[in-house]
Description:
It is built from ten helices and 16 strands. By secondary structure, it is α/β, with parallel strands linked by helices. A hairpin with a 7-residue loop joins strand 8 and strand 9.
Amino acid sequence: MSQFLPLLEAALPRIHPPIAWVLGAPRLIAQLAARLDQPRAIAYQMDLFQATRLREELADAGCPLQVQASADLWDLPADFQTVVFPSPPRAERELKIDMVEQAFHVLQPGGALIVLSPHRGDDLYPKLLKKIFGKASLTETSDGSIIWAYRQGDRPRRRHEMWVHARVDDAGPLRFLTRPGVFTYGQLDAGTRALLLAAEIRPGDRVLDLGCGAGAVGLAAARRTGPSGHIAFIDSNLRAAALADLNARHAGLSNFRVYTASRLESLPTDEFDVILTNPPYYAIDSITQLFVERSHALLKPGGRFYLVTKQWASVDPIVQQKYGEPEVFESRGYYILAARRADSSQA
């Protein structure tokens, strides 16, 4: 994280308001924005949870930066003179490409995209910016690389997306659309397959796909609930929620609802027969804790909870604290923890 401040210092002569900050860890963006101290700026995030954290970091830093969350960067108005993209070191390559292409469309004519890369000899951005903008410039420092380009003319919008066809049961291939920045792009991951294999889902069940991504778990569950069932999808990632809605409609689901929330605050309690979740592995003590605790209130008494993880030793105590000892199934390196909310007679 400390690499980005010197890179920003070196890029300062090329940064002119109004400014858009693109993605980046909340604390990093707050630090960079506070250093720039430019009120004519907006910070873009794709995820409501990250947007909330960023607002908290900005408040702590005393930086009055506006935060805007949406499924796409080009949902912002095309009136920025500078877009600054502190390239996340571990972000997927396809998401980086997507953000660069979308940045072109939110710039004023002659406006600049400036990428701050922590890598010297960056092998992605110089070629990518040249392809999108027609010309790109590069400066390397001991802290990394600064790559910039200016918008000239116009170009068609290109949406990066990929259809996935995956067999999860005997009802034919599951088909759903994926996009970069949503778990998992271009595939159905093995953890999802393991989760679906272990879960008991009955006709007429009300099922919650918790942290739904593109909605593959909920789509597969809908095949088992039948038309009398109901599927709810929820994610803090706005692009994920949009995809889940699109995929549910494409699959012909009529009895479903999609929610967006940063802390699962918009869901009704005592509502679901089954909750299925594959929480992100990078945030066990925060996201997983939230998912487990809130799911207990969202389930009906006697409702069934299924969580898949590769990190059983860390997740099992969190589940036990809320549900008691779960059943554990293992499949190809994944662990599925199955638990029930006690019914009223056992409470």
